[in-house]
Amino acid sequence: MMRRYAIFALWAALLGVTPFVSDNYVVRIAILVAMFTTLAQSWNFIGGYAGYPSLSTSAFYGLGAYAGAIAQNMGLNIFLAWALATVVVGIFAAGLGGIILRLRGHYFAIGSLAIVEVLRLLISAASDWTGGGDGLDLKMMAGGPDFIAMFFLYVMIALMVIVFVIAIFVDRGRLGFGLHCIHQNEDAAYMVGINTTQYKIAAYVLSAMFCGTVGAVYASWTLYIDPTDSFEIIMTIKVPVMVILGGAGMLLGPIVGAAAFVIMEEFVLDQFLEWNRAILGLLIVLLIIYMPGGLLRVSFEKIRKRRKAAAAN
Hints:
Blueprint: H1 2-16, H2 18-21, H3 24-49, H4 57-73, H5 78-100, H6 105-125, H7 127-130, E1 136-137, H8 145-172, H9 174-184, H10 186-191, H11 196-222, E2 224-225, H12 227-230, H13 233-246, H14 253-271, H15 276-290, H16 300-312
Antiparallel strand pairs: 1-2
Helix pairs in contact: 3-8, 3-9, 3-11, 3-13, 3-14, 4-5, 4-6, 4-11, 5-11, 8-9, 8-11, 9-11, 13-14, 14-15
C-alpha cells in the first residue's frame, strides 16, 4: 500500500518540477496530465468501483466551466468561483443521480450521454448569461505566461492530489466495499442490507464534483469557453478509456491510464497530424483487446514464461 502512495507522490513531484526543467510545451502537457488524471480518478468512483458506465463527464465538466466563468465575470474571486462551480455541479449530480441511476447497463450509458447534449443545448440557448454559440470570454489574471502556466499546473496537481486522497478513503472504506458489491451483484448487495441507491448517488456525486472543478479551472486557464468545446462528446469517451487503459477499479489505474493516454495522444498528433484520430483509436482498441484488465493488471511474469515456452518450441 505504501509503495502505491510513494509512486503517486513521486509522479506528482515530477509533474511539479516541469516549470523549472522544461519549456512551456512540456508544462502544458503536465497540466493536461494532471487534469485528465483528476477526471479519470473521478470517473473511477462510478465507473470503476460501482461498474456503472457513465458517459456524462463532459456534462459535469462543461457545467462547471460555465458556472465558474459566469461567477468570475460577475466579480467573484477566482477561488470562490471554482468552489461555487464544484457545489453547483455536485447538487446537479445529486438530483440527476436520483433519476438516472434507476437505469442499468447500456440504458444508463445512453441516458448519461444524453445529458451532455441536453446541457449543451440549454447553455447555447441561454445566450444572455452564457454568450450562446459565440462563447464566453474571461479576464486574464495578472502575471506573465510563465507564472500563469505554473499557477494552473499547481492548481491541477492540487486537485489531482485531493481526488487521490478521497479515492484512498473510498477504496479502503465502507463506501468502496459497498460499491464493489454493487459492481459484483447489485441485487445481492441490496439483499444483504446495502442501500444501493445511496451508495450509487454518492459515487455519482463524487464522480461529478471534481469534473466541475476541473472545468472551472480550465476555463480560467484558457480564458474562453463555448458550448461545443465545453460539452465535447470526445472527452466523455476519452476519460473512461483512460481508466480502462490503466485499470478500472484500481487506485493507480486512472493515474497510469491518463498519463499513458495523454502522452500517446501527443505523440500521435505530432507524428501523424492528418490521421491522428484514426491511429489513436486503433491503438486504443488494440490495447483494450490485448490488455482488457488495463496496464496495471498485465502479468509480466506470465509474458516472460510464454516467451520462454515459445523459444523452447
